[in-house]
Amino acid sequence: MDRASNTPQATHEVEVLPDRVRMVLVGEFDLANEQALTNWLVDAIEASPGRPLEVDMHDVGFIDSSGIRVLLHAHATAQRHGGSFRITRASGTVREVLEIVAVYRHLTGGA
Amino acid sequence: MSNPAETTILVVDDRAPKRYLLKNWLTRAGFAVTEAVDGQDALDKLQQRPFDMVVLDVKLPDMSGLDVCRRIKADPATTSTPVVHVSAHAVDAADRTLGLVGGADAYLVEPIDPHELVATVQAVLRYYRARRKAEQLADGLAGLAATTLAVTMARDFPELLSRAAAGAVRLFGTAAAVATETDAGWTLALATVSGDVTVAGWEPPGEDVPVGSHRLTGDATRWQLPAGWPDPGEVTVTTARFRAARPSLYLFTGVCADEDQTQLLTQLTQALGAAAEAQRAQDQDHRIAVTLQRSLLPRRLPAVPGISLAVRYEPASPQAEIGGDFYELSTLGDELLIAIGDVVGHSLHAATVMAEIRHALRAYAVEGHYPGRIVALIDELMVRLLPGEMATLCLLFLDPRTGRARLANAGHLPPLLIADGRVTEVWHRAPLLGINHARPDDLEFVLPEGGTLLLYTDGLIERRDITIRDGIADLSRLAAPVDADLDRYCDRLLRQLTNPPHADDVAVVAVRRL
After folding, report:
1. DSSP alpha helices (H): ranges in B386-431?
2. Do B468 and A97 lie within an 8 Å CB cutoff?
3. What is the per-residue DSSP string for B201-265?
4. Which of B504, B131, B135 is nearest to B342 (CA)?
5. In degrees to the nearest 10, what's the CA dihedral of B238, B244, B247, B251?
6. What's the pLDDT at B320?
7. What is the pTM of this model?
8. Nearest Cβ partner of A101 from B345, B431, B467?
9. How many Å lie between the alpha carbon of A83 and the closest alpha carbon of chain B?
């Protein structure tokens, strides 16, 4: 009914491992939470600069172009900090849309 | 304000002579008195209607007056009804304390002096009136805050006016109407006490509304309130107008004479006026953005022998933000340039990025580059000059005489080729613009005579409840056969696949080789 109820539910969890940082994303990502996703990823990169960041997308049900842009920015930011960024376990619609805009290999570390 | 004739007191005592005396004294002091003969009778009468006070004997035949008092104070409906105990017995301080701890507001012991009784009743009432007034004020302010928030969160004028009228009903307890000038003309929302809200066009009175906040009372007929207005008699009209050049806002309620209520009326009307101004500004922003975006798209379609063309651009609804979809159709020598794209983001800024990409595309095309090279050049341009921006683009050159086409895609949805009733998705996978990645060679194919190419943006197929693959499949199913009239074809696809109001903007380009 109001704008707030249109905001998709999304959460994240961060686990700092000896050799990498693992973030699990859950929910739907679009324009409404673009800023939140940006903050989560940038915070994780800046908290452990140089350490590879791995983002588990298994429980992400939807991502739109705004969300993809954030992932691409995070990829560039991680590289600037001397680290790396890759997504894992993207499936269904999320993998499909990443393949249509042809950034799937790029984001999974394949290119 | 505190007319004692309106003050009702319930006198509870099982002894008739005592009731008679109490009633007599209180009636002479100007109070309206109702009698109850025991505890149950008192509780029943309190259920039936509110009283301003209960004068309660401590010793009743069916239950203790202390229990009756506790039950009155425990019931939310009667908890703020004051209770004065009267006791026939010689009581000590401990008994009086028990009564007061049980919730009573005063404790009188016989023999009762009539003057002391009346003075005590008046003192307790004075305290309760002040307390009720403070509670009403607090309720009013809370209601004002809730209504202001609801109105501020409204997405459009009908919703804003409806919430405003419904909020005014809750605040003032009378029917209420709120009217102002919107992009659809003067609009009035009427809310009745039973909760029905109707929104309709309205003709404001010819008279000029002064700048500032004003309130007046007059006959309802003077303002031509709609037929649903319940009482044709007097109404209180409060207006807010911030500048002479701005439309005013009207709030109609039943007559409000109470001073606190009129202050609340003024505050509410000012808050509603501010919310209406904000809504107006938002509507205007959206109108400007849509006008700008349309002005950035091609104004005319080129006339190409042997080719028929149709395009559609549907902006996102006013509640959504502006989109970044674009298309391009122009002739380059003997060839037709066809492009469709989508800038990531929904803002006026996205629309300006779209314009830059479209102009760069035309400039590189005029220089004579082939599609893949143009896409790569735009990609590089974006990385250098528009860092952080991203866009998808599908670009192709078509030779109308031979049907030979050369296509480069950058992350955009595949065009559909419809020929002989068959639909083919024309896939050419390459990354979207803005990350400067390596690109594959152009895709070459032939658009046969009578064949149609359909290009579109994700607004046509993207829904959260289906995958993109299913969205493309739905479109493919509807895309063949192609209507004889391409304009009708585009309209039909939009009608069948989208459901206004659009959350996202939609662009569709159809090209048929005759």
Report:
1. none
2. yes
3. E----SSPPPSEEEEEEEEGGGGT--TT-S--SEEEEEEEESSTTSPPEEEEES----HHHHHHH
4. B504
5. 0
6. 62
7. 0.65
8. B431
9. 18
Residue B114, CA atoms < 13 Å, CB-side half-sphere? 12
For residue B469, list chain A residues with Cβ-Cβ distance below 8 A: 96
Cβ neighbours around A5 below 10 Å, total: 6
| C-alpha atoms less than 13 angstroms from C-alpha of B368 in its C-beta half-sphere | 0
CB atoms within 10 A of CB B219: 10
**Res. B164 pLDDT band, cuts 50 70 90:** very high
Query: What are A11-60's pLDDT values in tens digits?
Result: 999 999 999 999 999 999 988 889 999 999 999 999 988 899 999 999 99
Rounded distance, CA A34 to CA A64, Å? 10
Which of A65, A92, A100 is opposite residue B344, by nearest beta carbon?
A65
Query: Using CA atoms, how far apart are residues B277 and B282, in angstroms rounded to an integer?
Result: 9
Cβ proximity of B247 and B256 under 8 Å: no
Residue B439, token pair as written in the block: 């690109």
* Chain B residues closer than 8 Å to A37 by CB: none
> Which chain A residue's Cα is nearest to B440?
A102
Residue given tokens 């595949």 in the structure block? B414
Among chain B, residues having any CB pair with chain A shorter than 8 Å are 153, 155, 321, 342, 344-346, 388, 390, 392, 410-413, 429-432, 434-435, 437, 458, 462, 464, 467-469
Across the interface, whether the CB atoms of B430 and A102 are under 8 A apart is answered: yes
